[in-house]
């Protein structure tokens, strides 16, 4: 068990100490591998292999990356750096995985010292991590250990599981969800966009398609105009007389999303999509791209999915959605997920259809997305005779 040398010292784990401000390495693990942002179980050195095996090695490395999304790998790499930085400050070695060290780490995350700075012999307390952030950091450690071919991290070990259970009991709070964009909100947001500019036409199509499809922001920006047109696509569109069909690769695999035409051209997602394609003069490749040249040209590059969150936030603020709240509160409330939650909250159809559109495995997950709905439509108090 890691011990405290004295009340002003840092933690030291017996048999795992390392020189201050350095990362200890175990046999067969290089310092470069410890600091790699995106580790791979496929060997980086293939110079001695035959040409055909080198090609297979590169393809295998590509499949390793495809096993998780770019955003997930980025988050896991950041969490690994956070953990190894903390270990370095405490004179612990990150490898091999030690449940007692990890238990101390998640404790530090919960009390705010994992991200705090060291001043002299004291650690300045930073902002404590939320329970969900700590759970993600644990998942990231398990993933990183697996990618490095290290011994498996046993998250059921009492040094981790018991501490984590205590953190959940003491610090768990109800989830803070993003506000749903309802139809009347969306219409007001559309009015804030410049109908005469390429950027306004594009943003209009993104908002309407994202809402009507109940799409994640990465699903919006990952669309191509056709199948297999780019390497980084996550779906494509097909336009028909009655609507558009999206084929999407999401968290649960491939699925089809049907978006019918609206009752008015002004709010029809298919019309908005056709208008963007026409004026942007798109024929192939990414559907939603950057507008360049003072708003007069459309570039070849796909939009980053963060642009969807920025668009929703900006348009919601400009339209005065939830004007009863302060601007700071409103800035936090709205993001890309607001469109997805808006469809789930406002579509007056059988719940099964909403569940299918959002690609949820259970109705319970779909209900979590329902925000400002009539929560007391089913009144069991009256139904019981009271």
End-to-end gap: 59 Å
Helix content bin: 40-55%
Q: Would you list the SSEs in sequence order as H and E?
A: EEHHHHEEHHHHHEEEEHEEHHHHHH
Give the overall form.
globular
What is the helix tally?
A: 16
Give the low-confidence spans.
3-36
How many strands, what sense, and barrel or not for the largest sheet?
4 strands, mixed
Which strand order do you get reading across the main beta sheet? 5-6-7-8
Overall mean pLDDT stands at: 80
What would you note in describing this structure?
The longest helix has 21 residues, at 70-90. This protein has a four-stranded mixed β-sheet with strand order 5-6-7-8. Strands 1-2 form a two-stranded antiparallel sheet. Strands 3-4 form a two-stranded antiparallel ribbon. Helix 4 (99-111) runs parallel beside helix 6 (158-171). With 386 residues, the protein is of the alpha+beta class. The protein contains 16 helices and ten strands.
Question: Main attributes?
Answer:
four-stranded mixed beta sheet, two-stranded antiparallel sheet, 46% helix, 11% strand, alpha+beta, 386 residues
What is the topology?
Layout: E1 3-4, E2 11-12, H1 31-35, H2 51-66, H3 70-90, H4 99-111, E3 118-119, E4 122-123, H5 131-147, H6 158-171, H7 183-190, H8 198-213, H9 217-221, E5 223-224, E6 235-240, E7 243-250, E8 253-260, H10 269-280, E9 289-292, E10 297-302, H11 306-319, H12 327-333, H13 337-346, H14 351-358, H15 363-368, H16 380-383
Parallel strand pairs: 5-6
Antiparallel strand pairs: 1-2, 3-4, 6-7, 7-8, 9-10
């Amino acid at each position: 068990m890691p011990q405290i040398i004295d009340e002003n010292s840092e933690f030291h784990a017996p048999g795992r100490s390392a020189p201050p401000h350095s990362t200890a390495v175990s046999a067969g693990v290089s310092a470069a591998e410890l600091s790699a942002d995106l580790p791979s179980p496929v060997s980086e050195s293939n110079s001695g292999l035959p040409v055909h095996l080198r090609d297979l090695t590169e393809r295998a490395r590509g499949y390793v990356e495809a096993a998780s999304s770019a955003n997930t790998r980025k988050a896991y790499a950041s969490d690994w750096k956070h953990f190894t930085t903390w270990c370095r400050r405490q004179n612990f070695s990150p490898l091999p995985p030690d449940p007692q060290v990890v238990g101390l780490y998640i404790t530090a995350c919960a009390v705010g010292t994992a991200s705090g700075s060291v001043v002299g012999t004291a650690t300045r307390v930073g902002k404590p991590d939320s329970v969900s952030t700590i759970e993600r950091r644990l998942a990231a450690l398990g993933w990183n250990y697996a990618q490095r071919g290290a011994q498996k991290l046993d998250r059921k070990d009492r040094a981790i599981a018991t501490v984590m259970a205590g953190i959940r009991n003491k610090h768990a709070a109800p989830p803070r969800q993003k506000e749903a964009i309802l139809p009347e909100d969306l219409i007001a947001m559309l009015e804030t966009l410049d109908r005469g500019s390429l950027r306004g036409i594009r943003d209009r199509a993104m908002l309407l398609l994202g809402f009507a499809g109940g799409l994640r922001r990465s699903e919006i920006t990952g669309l191509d105009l056709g199948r297999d047109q780019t390497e980084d696509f996550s779906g494509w569109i097909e336009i028909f007389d009655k609507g558009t069909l999206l084929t999407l690769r999401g968290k649960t695999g491939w699925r089809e999303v049907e978006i019918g035409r609206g009752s008015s051209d002004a709010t029809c997602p298919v019309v908005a999509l056709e208008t963007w394609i026409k004026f942007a003069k798109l024929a192939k490749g990414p559907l939603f791209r950057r507008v360049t040249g003072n708003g007069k040209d459309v570039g070849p590059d796909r939009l980053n999915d963060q642009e969807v969150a920025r668009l929703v936030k900006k348009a919601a603020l400009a339209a005065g959605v939830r004007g009863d709240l302060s601007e700071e509160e409103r800035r936090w409330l709205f993001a890309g997920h607001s469109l997805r939650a808006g469809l789930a909250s406002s579509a007056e159809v059988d719940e099964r259809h909403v569940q299918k559109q959002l690609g949820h495995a259970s109705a319970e997950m779909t209900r979590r997305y329902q925000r400002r709905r009539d929560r007391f439509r089913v009144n069991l108090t009256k139904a019981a005779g009271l």
